[in-house]
Amino acid sequence: MHIDIATLLIGMTVCMITMAVALPAVMGEVNQAARRAQAGILMQACGWALLLLSGLFAPGSLADLTASSFAMAGLAGGLALNATAFDLWCGRPAHDRAPAVIAIVLPVGYAVGFSSYAFRVGWANGLLTLQMALVAIALWRKPAVTVGRWRYLLLFSLIGQMVVTAGRGVLGAFFTESYPTFLAPHPINLAFALMANATTVLSLVAILLAHRDEAARELQRLATEDGLTGVLNRRAWVASATTALSLSERHGHPVAVLMIDLDHFKRINDALGHDAGDRALTFVARALRAAVRSGDLVGRYGGEEFCVLMNHADLQATIAFDARMRAFLGEAAKGELGFELNYSAGIATREGVEDSLAAMLKRADDNLYAAKHQGRARTLDSAGLSVHDTITRSSGNYAAIAAASG
Q1: Does the pTM of the predicted model rise above 0.85?
Q2: Would you give the distance in Å from CA 74 to the centre of its chain?
């Protein structure tokens, strides 16, 4: 059976153009990673279209040189954009410049050495192979977020494409008589055309799966995170705190809950507007996240109320944390927000292995309610006693929170 390489490459190019048109419609509104993947597919589709178009011009002519050089820019530039998209989907910053550098160097060198067929074929295929290898290495590295098997799909596709692309480069550079044109019916070139078609389909599947993974992570984030402050929402905080309390019971380490309610928050909204109230909530949430230790949990319990579960923390540790927070707010709120900010709080510590999170929250809420009635701007401990007098002894300990909270 005769397989025509030109037909395979034309079919692949049509498929890539279709992908470039269909992906934005299928994905809808997307973020930076998906936009780069879409742009990468479009550039590669244009690259292949220009490469096929160059075959219509006289070999070695200016039109041939121009179309072929821009084709190389499209192929390498598209792969570089896809590389950054894959990095972003793996939860890493897209800072790997090597594929982008290759995308610039490849077409320049190709155009400069265009008069030598052996050079330009070896140069282009060699650098494309290197570029694919860099992308494959990045995909092999452990992602910073949980991703599906799409990266293995891409990885194996890239490895296969690397092998046949490297073969074309060696063939064109050192065995030119066996590969006089890019449509020559050599077995390696046939393998390249078949692999390119397969890789195109697999890349489309992988991009859609990566986009689905990202959408699932975003839904998970929206389901657990408070949209304004970025801390855990009430449902997610309760679920995580319940798990943390169970672990504390199993291992016998102390746990405390600190429930915080901003004082006179309605006055802030009424006098300064809801934007000022939102800034106050965000400021407090940022300070709480900066002040807690690894393993502690910060959540927005509702309205202007926050909850902190402190692992491996007894009453004294919780009181010290509260003092640092009050000192920080006293020093930083005016400068950051333009108005003073304070809070009332209640503390509850775990009382025996039978204690529950609901019971601890009830005690902390009762202490908070009592603190409000005693004049606000104070914290009551698990015995219902004010710990306000500890604040002055800790007023100099806010610097670390200030630096971390920005």
Answers
A1: no
A2: 26
CA 357/CA 350 separation, integer angstroms: 9
Q: With beta carbons less than 8 A apart as the criterion, state whether 350 and 255 touch.
A: yes
Give the burial class of 95: count Cβ atoms within 10 A of its Cβ; 0-12 exposed, 13-18 middle, 19 or more buried: exposed
Residue for token pair 């989907």:
89
For residue 21, which phi and psi values (nearest 5 degrees)?
Answer: -80, -40
- Token pair for 374: 């005693």
d(CA 29, CA 6): 36
Report which of 106, 104, 101, 132 is spatially closest to residue 195, judged by C-alpha positions.
132
Residue among 22, 138, 39 at smallest CA distance from 90: 138
Q: Across the chain, how many H-helices and E-strands are there?
A: 13, 5
Alpha-carbon distance of 361 to 367, in angstroms, equals 10
Q: How many residues does the chain have?
A: 406
Domains detected in the chain = 5-224 (1.20.1070), 234-405 (3.30.70.270)
Taking only the tens place, the pLDDT of each residue in 216-270 is 888 888 888 998 999 999 999 999 999 999 988 888 889 999 999 999 999 999 9
